[in-house]
Amino acid sequence: MEFSQVVANRHSVRDFTDQPVSREDLVDVVRTAQQAPSWVNSQPWRVYAATGRTLEEIKKRHAADVAAGRKGASDLPVMSRTEWSLATQANMAALAERIGSDLGDAASEFPAAQARMFNAQAVLYITIPTGSPLWSFHDLGAFTAMIALAAVDKGLGAINAYALVMYPDEVREAMGIGADEIVAVGIALGHPADSALAAFAPNRVDVDEILTIKD
Fold it and tell me: Which residues pair with 189 in a beta bridge?
C-alpha cells in the first residue's frame, strides 16, 4: 500500500471481529515502528503484547471494574476537558457532535465499546521508564503513531485509548510490568468489523488552521 493510502486509511477503529491477530503481524508491526525518530537514539519504549487467554482475563477484569464504577487511575495524569485550551475543547466538541449525527441511536455504543475493550484481539501496552525526561514523551508519540500506521499497512485496525490503560495495576499484574516502568499507552489491534462504529472517523481541522509558513 502506498504511504499516502496508509495515512488516509488510518482512523481509530472501535469495533473488531473475533479473527485473531497473528504473532507474525504483531512482530512486523512493532519492528516497523522501531524506525520512529528517537531523541539521541534513546529508544525508551518497551512493548508488552496481550493476546489469547491473557487478554481475555484482562478484558474480564476491565469489564467488571467498569460495571462496578471503579474510577480510572492511569499512570499518566489526566485533567478535566475544561482545563484544555479553547482550540482543543472545540475539537472535542466537534467529535461529540459527529458521534451524535453519524451514529444516532448507536452513539451509546461508544462507552460500551470501551468497556469491552473494542473486542480487540491484541492489545499492545507501551511503557517508558519511570522518571523519563519530557523528550521521551516525544519518542512515545512518534513510536505509537508508527504502530498505528504499520497496523493499517497490514490490513489491521488500531486505536490508542485511555480505556486500555485506566487500570494499570491489572495490566502490570497480567503482563509482568515492574514499578520502574510507566504504563503509558494502550493500543488495541484487530481486524475491523463491518459496523458503523468501526468505520466512524472524525474530521480533522483544515491545515490552514494549524500551519504557519513565513518566507
Answer: 122, 158
Residue 14 main-chain phi, psi, to 5 deg: -110, 10
Please say whether the beta carbons of 21 and 156 come within 8 A: yes
pLDDT band of 102, cuts 50, 70, 90: confident
Per residue in 113-163, pLDDT tens?
999 999 999 999 999 999 999 999 999 999 999 999 999 999 999 999 999
Give phi and psi for 33, each to the nearest 5.
-65, -25
Q: 46-50 and 181-190: which strand pairing?
A: unpaired
Is the overall model pTM greater than 0.85, yes or no? Answer: yes
Element (H, E) at 160: strand 157-160
Name the grid cell of 40: 539521541
**Closest by alpha carbon to 103, among 206, 204, 202?**
202
- The CA dihedral of 24, 9, 54, 177, to the nearest 10 degrees, is 90
Measured at the alpha carbon of residue 71, what is the angle toward residues 187 and 113, in degrees to the nearest 5?
45
Q: Which residues pair with 125 in a beta bridge?
A: 48, 186
